[in-house]
Write a structure and sequence with these properties.
about 200 residues, two-stranded antiparallel ribbon, 4 helices, elongated
Amino acid sequence: MRDVRRLAVRRRRPIAAVLAGLAVACVLLAVRTPDGVEVLAAARDLPGGRLAPSDVMVVRLPPDAVPAGAYVPGTPVTGRVVAGALRRGEPLTDARLLGPGLFRQALAGQAPAGQVVATPIRIADPDAARLLSPGDVIDVLAAFEDGPFQARVIAQEARVIARPPGRTDGGALLVLATTPGQAAQLAQAQAQGRLFVTIHPR
């Protein structure tokens, strides 16, 4: 009888060891950090505008799917302005948020430093502005109410850097890459009349 008990005890020990090992493995699997890189992304479809805390969430992407310039958790993005529409889950990058980094990137390689500047203008037709995206090339025309009502081209082949959202009752804001001379002419024309755009085909 004693031999039977000893045999049972001997058999139980390996089984208990196996069960203990399985329990440890399950715990490790439960607490293991999932593979991927955490980045900030849009928490919902965003038309643009300033980011609120509820507009941002953290997503985990495979390392090879993380876009250049993506923001990691802890980066202060609340209050920054989105340059254009974002879809839910789309990562936030330095190319999508307005700021010095976006302007430097947009102006890089277009001309020597100092010969191209970022110029904000307000055009009269907000519906026309909604047709534009960063990278589009436009001509800017001014219509003056004093004297003969005739539009005149003020700036040619200006590239759109950003189309910030905002009120539309007074027109729509655009940020263009222009020369300093074009910037001065646009400022004068905007003070004296209304600005319109024509769009170059891509």
